Each structure stands twice: as structure tokens, then as C-alpha cells.
Recover the amino acids of this structure.
């Protein structure tokens, strides 16, 4: 009996790989419809994207950084609250 | 969703602002916030932006950029003016690197959990108010 497994290793984010790993996405999608205009504006602010050594390798909007996807993070954990 | 699955790392900060009585100022997030509406949290958390003065590759420069961003956000979020929280009063404590799990509503069509990863710089300061 044999088994086949696939191990997926996250590729390191570097200045060379970042554009390939994170191709730009449309920030004007309908996902934000209905939200407060000021909050939508803040989503277009550019974050500083880092490599594993804390060195800046690019700028991306908060939305591209995946900011929105944290919205249902463990709500009891206030240490992870973000603006 | 793929951005999060791959762990896009970005710079962030947390401010803990104390008064002369060693009381920590906390805030309740606005109902309009897209993330964590109405939640209570520490004084101020946000991100330095990819603009002149808030970036920096080396630690000293990066910390200075974060302090400028902290000043900007304390005014923006809480109306605390820069003169009340001088740059030199911010004390840089440490950097932490974390991933926070999320099953965010933006990914509800996916079953796997997601992570948000960020490099967070911890600052403390004492304000000039009583």
C-alpha cells in the first residue's frame, strides 16, 4: 500500500518574487459597496510591504494587503485589533 | 484571498499612551469601521504609509517613520495633536512578527483559514495631558 503526499512550502517573499506572488488586483471592486466612504478611502492608503528581514520591498493598498480579510478575526483577542 | 494565504507581510504599529497617573488610554472603534467595528482596543493601531518620512529600511529610520505615523494617527483618530505627543516622547519597545488567523467574510466561499501577517512595532508614550 502506498500513499502520495504533496508538501506545499510557502515561497519566501522577496523583492524579486513579490510581483509574481502578488499580481496587482483591482481595488475598485464591489466588495466595499455599502461601507462608509471614509473607511473606503482609508483602504486605499498604501502599506509598506516587507520581506522577512523587515526591509521594505514595495507598497500596496491596505486592501491588497488582505486587510479586509481580517474582519472576522478572533474578536475576543483585542491585541489583534487594527485600524 | 491568495495574498493572505501567502502571508503578505506589512509594517504596522501599536501605541500605548499613558497619562501621568499611569492610566492607559483605550479607545472604542467606530461602528463604521470595516474591521472590528465597536471593539475596544489599545490607544491606537495603524500602519506607516509608503510616503516620504514614514518608511525606512534600517531600524532607526523605520522606527522614526513609525513614530511619525503614530503622531499622524493619534490626531486623525483621537484628535490628540502632535504638540501633545512629541516624537521624542515615543518609546520604541520592540518589533513582533505575527500571523493572525481569520475566516474573514471576504473569504466565506473558502473553507480554509486565512492569515494576516504583519510586522508590528510597539510604541509607548506619555501624553501631555493630566
Amino acid at each position: 500500500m502506498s500513499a502520495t503526499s504533496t508538501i506545499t512550502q510557502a515561497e519566501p517573499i522577496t523583492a524579486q518574487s513579490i510581483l509574481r506572488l502578488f499580481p496587482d488586483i483591482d481595488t475598485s471592486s464591489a466588495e466595499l459597496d455599502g461601507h462608509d466612504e471614509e473607511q473606503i478611502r482609508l483602504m486605499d492608503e498604501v502599506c509598506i510591504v516587507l520581506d522577512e528581514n523587515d526591509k521594505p520591498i514595495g507598497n500596496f493598498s491596505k486592501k491588497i494587503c488582505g486587510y479586509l480579510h481580517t474582519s472576522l478575526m478572533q474578536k475576543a483577542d483585542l491585541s489583534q485589533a487594527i485600524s | 484571498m491568495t495574498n493572505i494565504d501567502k502571508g503578505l507581510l506589512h509594517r504596522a504599529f501599536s501605541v500605548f499612551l499613558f497619562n501621568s497617573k499611569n492610566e492607559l488610554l483605550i479607545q472604542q472603534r467606530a461602528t463604521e469601521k470595516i474591521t472590528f467595528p465597536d471593539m475596544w482596543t489599545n490607544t491606537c493601531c495603524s500602519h506607516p504609509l509608503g510616503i516620504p518620512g514614514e518608511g525606512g529600511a534600517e531600524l532607526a529610520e523605520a522606527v522614526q517613520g513609525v513614530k511619525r505615523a503614530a503622531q499622524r494617527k493619534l490626531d486623525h483618530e483621537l484628535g490628540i495633536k502632535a504638540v501633545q505627543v512629541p516624537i521624542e516622547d515615543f518609546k520604541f519597545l520592540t518589533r513582533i512578527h505575527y500571523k493572525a488567523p481569520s475566516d474573514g467574510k471576504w473569504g466565506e466561499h473558502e473553507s480554509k483559514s486565512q492569515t494576516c501577517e504583519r510586522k508590528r512595532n510597539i510604541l509607548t508614550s506619555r501624553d501631555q495631558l493630566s
Remarks:
- Chain A touches chain B through 46 residues (CB under 8 Å).
- The beta strands of chain A are 46-50, 56-61.
- The mean pLDDT of chain A is 60.
- The longest strand of chain A covers residues 56-61.
